[in-house]
Amino acid sequence: MPGFELIGDAEREHVNHVLDNGIFFRYEFANERKGVYKVRDFETQFAKFVGTNYAQAVTSGSSALKVALVSLGVKPGDEVITQGFTFVATFEAIIECGAIPVPAEIDETLNMDPADLERKITPRTKVVVPVHMLGSPARMAQIKEIADRNGLKVLEDTAQALGAAVGSKITGSIGDCGTFSFDFYKTITTGEGGMIVTDDPKIYKIASEYADHGHDHNPNVGRALEGRSFLGFNFRMNEFQGAVGLAQLGRINKILEIQKTNHSIISNALSKLSGITIRSLPENGRDSNTHVCFFLPDADSALEFHKKVTAKGISAISFKNNLWHFLGNWEHLINRKTAWPGVFPFGEPYYSGKVDYSPSTLPVTAGLLQRLIVIPVSLRTTTEAAQCLASDLREIARETL
Length: 401
Fold this sequence. Notes:
The protein is α/β, with parallel strands linked by helices. The protein has 2 domains: about 5-250, 3-Layer(aba) Sandwich (Aspartate Aminotransferase, domain 2); about 255-400, Aspartate Aminotransferase, domain 1, CATH 3.90.1150.10. It is about 35% helix and about 15% strand. The protein has 13 helices and 15 strands. Strands 1-9-8-5-4-2-3 form a 7-stranded mixed beta sheet, sandwiched between helices. The chain has a 3-stranded antiparallel beta sheet with strand order 7-6-13, with no helix packed on it. α6 links the parallel β4 and β5. The longest helix has 20 residues, at about 250-270.
C-alpha cells in the first residue's frame, strides 16, 4: 500500500540530480540549478495525473488542508462541516484557521453521509470537507449538489485515496479543490509532503502565495518582485521531496495495479461469506484498493475476528478504539484543548454557535466502526501470498460466524 515499499533506483537518480547541482530550495537560483526544478516538475506531473489545471506542493497533507482552507476564504467564526471518521489533521487544520469543525456522520462507504451533511448546514457554514477514507471515494455527486444548492465550497481531503475516482473524475479534482498527503504511509511518499489541486486560478494563486510567506509568483517578473497582497507562512516543499515525489509518481500506475490485484483476491474471498459485508462504493465509484474494508454482523463478532486475525500475525485494524481517526476518542477536542489560552476559537467573541464533540454525538459512525475490520493491502505481497492471506481470513471468518 505505501509507496515506501517500492523505493529504488528511480528515487536515487532524482535525488542525485539535486545533490549534483547543490540547490535544495524550490525557487530561484536559475543559473546554478541547471534547469533542475524537481518540485515544479512534480506539481506539473501530479496535476496532469489528477486532471486539474493547477497543483501546489507543500510540506505535508496537514498543511495542504490549512492552505486550501485559507485559499477558500475560511476565517474565524466560520463553520466547516467534515466527517467524524477521519485523521485528526482534518479537524486540526480547520481549527488552525480559527474556524469550527462540525462533525457529520458517515455511511457504509465510510465517508460523509450526504443526508447528515444537509442536516448540519447553518448560516455559519462556509466549506464542506468530505474525506475519501481508506482508498474509497465519498458520494461526491450528492455532496456537490447539496453544497452548490447552499452556496458552499467543497474541499476534498484525498490524503488516503490517491487514484480513486468517481466516473471519469479522479478524487481531488471533483470539488473546488483537493488535498493529498505524501507521508510515509501514503500511496506515494516523499517522507512528508502534501499537494493542493484545483482548476480555479484564484484559489491556486492564494495557495501558491500563502505557502511562501505571501510572495507573489509572477513567472514573467520573478518571485517576490511585485510585492505581497497578504501575510503568509512557510509551507514550501523542498527539492529532495520533489525528487522523490517525481520518482514515486512515475510508478503510480504500477502501484494501483498491484493494489487492485491483491485487493480483489482478498475481497472476493470474503464477499462470498455469509455475515461479511464489503464496504459500499458510490455510484460509478472506483476504489484505489489500499485497504480491504468489511463489516461483521455486530461488535462482538468483529472483536473476536480481530483478536483471531492479529493472533495469527495478520495486520488488521479495528477502528473502534483507534486514537487518531475517530472523533469519539479525541479527548483534547472533546475538552476543546488548543495551544492557545482561553476559549479561542470555540467561544465569544469569535464564535457564538454551539457544537457537540461528545463521544455520543455520532452514533451511526460509532456503530459502523464497531463492526468494521480493515486489512491493509501491501505492495510487497505476491499473488500467492495474497491468496494464502485470503484463505486464512476466510477460515477465521467461518470460525467466528
